[in-house]
Amino acid sequence: MTKQEVNNNIRYNENLVRQYENTISRLNGQINTLNSEIRQVNSQISQLNTKKNNLNNQIKELNQLKTKYQKLQTSFSNRQNARLRKFTANFSRNFNAKFVASYVSGMKSLLSGNEYKKAYNGLTSAINTISNKIKALQKDVDSLQKDINSKNKSIESKRRSISSYQSQLSTARSNLSYRRQRITYWKNQLKYAT
User: Fold this and answer.
1) Which region holds residue 144: left if phi is over 0, alpha if psi is between -120 and 50, else beta?
2) What number of H helices and E strands is found in the chain?
3) I need a surface site. Which of 73, 108, 111, 114 has the fewest CB within 10 A?
4) What is the pLDDT of residues 102-155, one digit of tens each?
5) For the segment 68-108, what is each residue's pLDDT rounded down to a tens digit?
6) What gap in Å lies between CA 96 and CA 63, rounded to an integer?
7) What is the DSSP string of 4-58?
8) Could you give the residue ranges of the DSSP H alpha helices within 91-113?
9) How many beta carbons lie within 10 A of that of residue 143, not counting itself?
10) Cβ–Cβ < 8 Å for 186, 16
11) Taking Cα atoms as reference points, which of 174, 184, 182 lies closest to residue 23?
């Protein structure tokens, strides 16, 4: 083999070494970029989880408040019904006295009339308001969870890309090592070339 042919082989392998070094540098850059993006997305997921946990705590507190209102309403209704039963049992006959008849009519109105209905309906309105707030917060929680799921899918995709790049990187490093060995081999062949 002539010196020119050996030098041509050396240059050929040196060109391949530069290409593999550029490929390795590019792949490392892409991997670093993806790792940085994954860190950013993980930070966003952490913030979303914090918001979601805060909303879930609010929902929990509102559910506790709603339960208290429901118990209060039930207790109020039970006490009112007990009073009405006692009243009805005590004053079930018709009285002739105008005062007693007026008293009985007034007490009946008090125990089952508009004031009772207003108080009972006020509790129902409060329970409905709390329920609507819980639904709105749950909708926000669901939206945050959807965003978290989307970001997790993005991370999975980036990790698959990293895995692919690492496989390409391994191949490029192996090829680089081989081409460097070939350069060493051809440089040693120079002394035998004609």
Assistant:
1) alpha
2) 3, 0
3) 114
4) 665 666 666 666 777 888 899 999 999 999 999 999 999 999 999 999 999 999
5) 999 999 998 888 888 777 777 766 666 555 655 566 566 66
6) 52
7) HHHHHHHHHHHHHHHHHHHHHHHHHHHHHHHHHHHHHHHHHHHHHHHHHHHHHHH
8) 98-112
9) 13
10) no
11) 174
Supply 167's token pair: 């496989």
Q: Report residue 194's pLDDT band, with 50, 70 and 90 as the boundaries.
A: confident
Question: 37-74 pLDDT, tens per residue?
Answer: 999 999 999 999 999 999 999 999 999 999 999 999 99
Phi and psi at residue 113, to the nearest 5°: -95, -155
Show the tokens assigned to 186. Answer: 């051809």
- How far from 128 is each of 106, 122, 131, CA to CA, in Å? 31, 10, 5
Residues 6 or more apart in contact with residue 158 via CB below 8 angstroms:
34, 37, 38, 41
The tokens of 86 are what? Answer: 């006692």
Give yes or no for a contact between 176 and 70, defined as CB atoms under 8 angstroms apart: no
Position 96 scores a pLDDT of: 57
Q: Which amino acid is at 151?
A: K
CA 127 to chain centre: 28
Task: Let me know the angle formed at the C-alpha of 162 by 158 and 164, rounded to the nearest 5 degrees.
Answer: 115
